[in-house]
Specification:
The protein has one domain. The chain has two helices and no strands.
């Protein structure tokens, strides 16, 4: 994520406008909402999977602590 933020930090208004215009030309005005919807869904699924893995790791750490305390 940090590398993504660093990459976006180097883009100015001119570059972002140019990228937007290229995307608009490639996909057309009608496809952009569908494209953004799919992108948002992908990001939500990624975050959900990430949170699930984090929860499993935390639960594993709690279980390991309980076993250590019981011994």
């Amino acid at each position: 994520m940090l590398s993504t933020l660093l990459f976006l930090g180097n883009l100015g208004a001119t570059e972002l406008t140019l990228i937007f215009l290229v995307v608009l030309l490639m996909f057309g005005g009608n496809k952009i909402p569908e494209l953004m919807r799919g992108l948002g869904k992908g990001i939500r699924e990624f975050n959900s999977a990430k949170n699930s893995v984090e929860d499993e790791i935390r639960q594993g750490m709690r279980d390991a602590e309980k076993k250590t305390i019981e011994k």
